[in-house]
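Incident log, structure service

09:12 report received: a user says their structure output differs between two submissions of the same chain.
09:20 pulled the input from the user's history:
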Amino acid sequence: MITIEINHFDLRQIAGSGQCFRMVPCDPNRSQTAYRVISSGHFLIVEQHGEEVTFHCPDEDYPFWHHYFDLNTDYGAFLSSVKKRDHYLQNAANAGSGIRILNQDAWEMIITFIISQQRTIPKIREAVENLSRLYGEEKHCTFPGGKTVVYFSFPTPAQLKKASLEDLQSLKLGYRARYIHRICLDADNGTLDLNRLSAMGYRDAMEYLSGFYGIGTKVANCICLFGLHHIEAFPVDTWIQQILTNHYYRKKYDALPKSRLYETMVQENFGKYKGYAGVMQQYIFYYERTVLHGRSS
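09:34 re-ran on a clean worker, output below:
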């Protein structure tokens, strides 16, 4: 058990920011100050009281979680860089000032965000847990006092390729089952090289990912932001489209074809946050969805 003080860190905001699906409240019926987190075969219970955060995990696992929560990055610098004339982003950054971009496993994010297409967050979470339970490895974490937690790691490409297309379809994945089945074959035969992908910069990673069946621009950006930690990535989903239209649309955009509209709006309004526009994306996504529309899951 390790307890530290962290600025600009809020478990509830991180869990509600749409980037992770294996971070859930320990007791959803009570104040959400403690969460269970599973990532890359590791298990954590983390709780927060004010700026004091306690990590309940084996001591040797703490460096993994320190990196996972991006604790070496100064998010105060991101917050202070928000332009004062952008009142919407100012409000969003203030509301989500505890969000951090997590360092998550690229393979898990590939499958997770393929699943995410046209699905709600509870349905994404359910699908991820089902895949882990059926095809991942059963693991045990023992805490001081002798309590043991049983959990399942997210399946590796070798583990998940054992699932047939019919098996995946039985999990109510719909058309996404074909995408997952194909990407597993690509990972198994080396067409998808995860080591090569992890070494790529943002632009190269986007081009590479977009060449695979079932991965479009939005999903590729999510993988880049949440699985490769390219924090300049700026995924545009229906929530972000709504935000851009309601708060950043100007008359000059009337002349743009829809295929270029949102890309242009993102570049002109968030390109000034060069190298970390994805942090701003998380602020506005969280603010619009959770604060203004009251969606918590």
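09:41 both user submissions now match this output. Likely a transient worker issue. Closing.
09:42 reviewer note: The radius of gyration is 19 Å. The chain has a mean pLDDT of 94.
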